[in-house]
Structures are given as structure tokens and as C-alpha cells.
Fold these 3 entries.
Entry 1:
Amino acid sequence: HSIVTSHDVPLSDVAQGEVFTKHVDQPDSAYAEAAGLNWLGAASPQVVKVVAVSDHTISTTKITPERPTRAAAEAAGVELARIHLAGAPAFGSPPLGWPGPNFIGTQIQACEPDPDWARFYTTQRVLPFYRKAMDAGNIHDPERTVERACELIAAATWESAHVAPGVAGRIHGDLWSGNLLYGRPVSKNVLTETALDDAGADNGEVDGGGVKPFFIDPAAHGGHPETDLAMLALFGTPFIEDVFEGYQSVRPLADDWRDFIPVHQLHPLAVHAFTHGPSYGHELLRCATDVVRLLG
């Protein structure tokens, strides 16, 4: 397997107990995750480092969890914006050095490079999982509202304030709150620094050199940056407004960017409608209705 290794941590620098090892069943899943972590990590030190990877395991630097702080949340936004700005060759591009497949959780998803974001997003992200959810009986959509939403997305003119034509962001791709950790590395050998290390008191808390954000478990690919932000909003994350503030200090967003959040929530809701059942099918239909109202 060809995996980018320039950001891997030498085993000699990591003692026993300083790594987290995850076991996976799907062939290539561990290698895909390792490639994604290395690709994102090339743009930010706040991505956990890959220590080792095999057919069924991936080991990364271990993080001691801590309570999030507002300063750490703001730092998360700063680092996420830097990752996005590192870019990708095209929408749907897999991580550098990894030809695919791409995984979101346990599910395989396509990563076929496409210069058109709307086409990539609807045909490779939303519709495949929507159809699987329909086949599983997890969504009742006789009016094909989700398909109508995708048609409107594909037909819309996406201004550069939202996504520049042909300019893909380097996105995490599965950024729910469980994949944004707050804490400290167990190993001081791999302790990372951020631009906000010297942040002072914030609401009675001091974060300088303390609690930091760490990104884990990506489904990394070339995509729309606001997709990551919308997923954080979908499932909720501590101090989310501070995340957004930090993000916009590096990569400003359009004034109406929040109006388009439902567009970007179609994919994770379609995945969950397939994997987690009808309750998410209802949420997917509600979200698609919002998209039709927005773009129709």
C-alpha cells in the first residue's frame, strides 16, 4: 500500500501506552484513514499523528481528554481553516498517495475527482446513501424530495463566496464532535504547538499551553469547506460559535453562509439514514425540504 509517511511519528519516539490503536474490519479502511490523517496533518499540527498502520489496525498518538475551553474551540476553528486552505486537486480527490477507496465510518464512498462541486456532492455523496436508505426501507419519500434537492443543488450557480469553481478545500469529511477531541498528547515527544498557545484568560480559564484541539478519524477528500462546518452544527459541539469565530479569523465566510448549512447536511443525514435507521430518514427528508425551499 502506498501511504504518505512523511508525517508519521517514529516508533522510537513513542513509548508503550502513548498510542491509541483502533481495530477495523474493512479491507483498506486503516490505510485510507492513515492517508487522510497524514494529508490533513501536512496542513496542521492539530491532527493526530500516525504511528503505525496494518491491514486491520491503525495506531495514532494518544490524547488525554480534557474539558473543552473557548480558547481551544477557537483554536480548532483556526486550524480547520488552515487545513481547508491547503486545498485539494479537485472535488472528490482522495488524500495524497492514496488511490481509494474512501470510508465514512464503516461505509465505503466514492472519491472520483470532479471539477464541479455540486455534481460531485450529489452523485458521490448524497444520492448513493439516499438510495441505500430507500432500499433498506429507512426513508419514505414518495415525492422524491431528496432527489429534487439534489437537482436544485446541481442547477444552482455557486458563487465564489461559497465555493470558488474548481477550487476544492482539503476537508475532514466526517467532522462530528466525536472526531474533534480536546486534550493533551500523552507523549511529550509529540506535543504540538499552535498559533494560539499564548492565549490568555478566557471566561476565567487559561488555555495557553494547555487544552488543545485534535482532529481524528477523517473521511478526508477534496470538498466544500462548509461541509465540515455544517456537520459540526448538525450534531453539535462545545463552544461552536468560538469554533466559527476562529475559523473566520483565517478564512472569512459569506454573510449568508449559515443559510446553506442544510445543503451540506444532506450527506451525513443520508449516511445515518442508511446506517442508523428511519429516525434519520425523517431528518433527511426534513433537511431536503429545507434545501428545496432555499434553492427552489
Entry 2:
Amino acid sequence: NTQLSYSWSNGAGTPSITPVINTTTKFIVVGKDANNCESTVTHTVVSQEIPTVTWTGTTTLCQGDRLQLNAKGAKTYKWTNTDRPGVPLSTTNLMTDYPTSSTVYTLEGSSNGCAAEPINIPVNALPNPSLTYQGNTVICENSQLTLTVYGADSYLWNNGSSNKTMITIPPAGDTVFSVVGTDKNKCKTELKIPGTVNKNPDFTIEGETEVCRGDYTTLIARGDAMNYYWGYQTPIYDKNLSGNGTPVGIQIDIPTYVFVKGVDDHGCESEKSLAIKMKTPPTIRYSGNTEVC
């Protein structure tokens, strides 16, 4: 009311005041009208302390690892991140995240409507090692597989080897070789390497295994191989080359072995041998006069 005058306990004479409150304070205002009639009003303003917010946690970690930050000092909290502005990551004192790159988290805390200054917390996400490998991952059964990995400081293969190079003879079939590489910061990367171990070809040798001296025997190799290489007396395959089911003639002079190596379209091979025996020649007797006129 413009006909009133006011007198505040802090000395102000305006209808309203905006004091700075540092402690709980009682304000008294006296209002007087044109007739010098007056009224007195008392109002107490309770001062709430601004909370002192602190936090704990490890802020250097590997990309994708678990980050956990813990706050204290306030009644309510809000965690946000510069990569996801406006999206609360947590509204409790505990915040968990899995950062994949270096970033900044912001912590806000308040108590009784009084908010502390926001705290910015930089987090350093260290890069995980980048692994590469060398080696042939398609091999034949019973063959040695050698894989060498690069990009980290230490390694652990799924077969227990801790060497940079892993050497093994895996079973036939499709398989996966895995290795975990760790760098000097203890950051880790797992590399999975698919491999194929092809079975060696299986085949049989057919043909006559007992012949007369100087005769030929006809042998046939049948099975999973694409080509067959033949050796006579020793496993030196320089005699003949045949396809699957193709007859091969070999002249036999002495009891011996025939050796066969079958090779399939993967280059996988198997070897077999076949014993060739000599037939006992007939014993011929004669009678008669061997002297004549």
C-alpha cells in the first residue's frame, strides 16, 4: 500500500528487501499508515549450509573397463557425462560406467535445496592393445600349426602357452585359437583366430599281391585323394602318378613293397604300403635218354 511506510530491523525502509543470509536470521518489519497506526510482523529465515561434496575413485583405466566413482557430503546427487549431455548416469552417490574413450564426468550434489558447485572429473581411458597375427590357419591333420601374434607386451593363448609364437598340433575340424595380449598399462585385448584342420585322405589299394617273377601286377588306389603317387621298393614316389581309381601296372622282379601316397585337393596326404609276394615257380622233372646216335 503506497500510503504505508515500512521500517525493517536491518534498517531498510522499502516494502521489500533482499538480504544475504549467512546464518539463521529473524527479520522484523513495522508498517505505519497515514494515521500513524502501525503493525509489526516478524519473519525468521533459516540458513541452510551448502554441502561440501567430495568423491573417490580411480580415473585412469583401460577402455571398456568398469569405472566406479563414489560421492559423499550431500543428500542428493546427479552424475552426467560430456559425451551424453543431459542424461543422468546416476542419481545416487555411486556411479558406474564403462567408458570407451577419455571423457569428463560432472557431479552435482545438494542438501535441503542448497546445491554445491558442480565438480568436473576427467577420466583417462587408456587404449587397449591392437593385436595382429601371422600364420597359416588352414592346415592338414597331424600337421604343426604355428601362429605368431604382435601388438602387446605379453600373451596368453587358450592352450596355456605364454609365448609370442604358439605351436601346436590341433585335432581335425574347425576350431578357434584365442590369445589375450596385455600391454605395459595392463590393458588387454582378446584376439580370436578361426582355423580349419582338414582330415588327411583315406584310401585303399586294390590288386593282385602275388605274381610270378617279371610279371606285371595291376594296382588301383581308391578313396578320398585326388592324385596318387607310386613308389617301388622304397617310399620314393617317382614311378607313376594316377588319379582316383586309375589302374597302375608295376613289373615285379623280387618280393617287395609298393608304396602309395594319396594327396587330396587341400594338399593333405596319407601314405600306405602293400606287400607283393613272388609265386613259387613249378619244379619241372624230366626223364629220357640224353645221348643218342
Entry 3:
Amino acid sequence: NLANNATETLTIVCQVVALGDLSNYANVTVYQNDTNTSNNEVNITVKSLPIVDLNITKVVDYGNGTVNVGDYVQFTIRVVNEGPCDATNVTVIEKLSSLLNMTSCHVSEGGGSYNVTTGIWYIGDLKAKASVSLTIGATVKSNGTISNFVVVTSNETDTNTSNNNYTIDNITALPVVDLNITKTVNASHVNATDSVLFTIIVHNKGPSNATKVNVTEIFDENIFKLISNYTEAGYYNLTGGYWYIGNLNANETVNLTLVCKVLIDGTFRNYVNVTSYENETAPGDNWAEVWLTAY
């Protein structure tokens, strides 16, 4: 029974389990005659929109936290649609660092395609509970700090945006060089009191520029007397027994010439060694020697 001018309310809470237009119809009737039946029914329509929960992760395989120029680094990005609906127009922004050069790229089955120029991995449609992955191989082409950030989006409303992006820990890329040194003498057999010309050549094969390049070149002043020296890079210090070059760019070559007077007779060995601040990839050619016999 409903008294005159009284009101009653019914509240129903429902869970939406399907997409589309959801219609609901309600109608009221009474035992008595109703003087206005036009307001005895109501119909509402609610549009059910899809929702998704996209989850993106990224794993980097590069060793112990640092890499050298020339090393290989592998990135694996995985996207999971936790549902409950299928996702459409799924897109991942994955822009590689300018310090890297991509050497390989593999997308799992149904994972769309990756454009290295734009840095966009287009997945397209991704069903609920499905996952896809992208694996990128790259070499380190320059030293510095490698950072990387990925983010995934879709047409649908995402119920948890906190897992739509992922940032890797920064990777430190260290410079490496391959210094090569050679030494020659213009005559291997001379007379005591003759003058000889030593030539030392240092070449940086790269791939990085070298800094604090230094050559050990020690002369025994009981055997040789330095008459003159010339270098186009740095300076030679006779007392300290070193040729300080300083900076030497990748693929750059410098030389030092030394004119010495032989003071005594005998057979003598002269040894030189080159070092730099950077890691050396092939230390076997960082030294050289010449032999000289004076009569």
C-alpha cells in the first residue's frame, strides 16, 4: 500500500558484464483507476564502454651496470592486457637512446611492428589476458648515460595508469680506445758519436677519443745525448722521460721525432709504451722497441 502523497524508492546496484547499450524498463500499476497513465513507465539507456588494464615492463641485459662503447645491449619490452576487455590501437613509444645503434629487432607473434625511426611499436588489437613482446638488440656507439622510457596507450579507458609506463635504471657507457705505437730508427748500425733519428708514431684506432695520452720514452744519458726533438702534439720531457700527447681523437695519428748522438759503443735497446685514461681494448700494441748497435 502507498498512502496519498507518499513516496517509496527502490535502489538496485548491478555490475556491467557486457559492452553496448544497456536498456532498462520500469512500469508501475495499481488496483485503483489511474487518472494519468502517461507517467506510469520509464525507460533509460546506458552506454557500456570498454575498459582495460595495460601493463608494460622492460628488461635490459647489459651486464653489471656499466658498458663499454662497442658492447651489445638487449632490451625486452612486454605488454600484457589484464582486461577485462579487449584493447584496440595499442601503441608503445620506445625511442632508443642516441648513444645506441639498433642491430636487431624481433616482435612476438601478433605483436605488430616496430619503427626504429619514429620509435613507435604499433601492436594494434590486444585481447584480454593476452601479451606480446618486443626484443631490440643494439650496440653502444658513444659514451655517456643511456636512459630509456617506454609508455603504452590504447583507445580504451585504462583502469590503472600507474603500470602504463616503465623507466630503466640509467646505464653508464664508458669510452674505449685501441692505441697503437710504433718506433723506428733510421739506422740500426752506426759508429759511436754518430747521430741517429728516432721516430715514434701513436695512432688511436678508436672507437672513442682518447684523453691523457702519455708515452714513456726514457733515454740513458750515458748512452745517448738528445740533440733535438719535434712533435706536432703535446711535448717531450727529457728529464721525466715521457712524451705527453694529451687528447687524441679516434683515427688520429701523431708522431715524435728525436735526434740523438750515440756516446759509446755497444748494442742498446730502446723501449716505448703508451697509455691513456680510457679502457684499452688491445694492449698488445701499446709498446714498441728498437735495437741499435754502435761500434
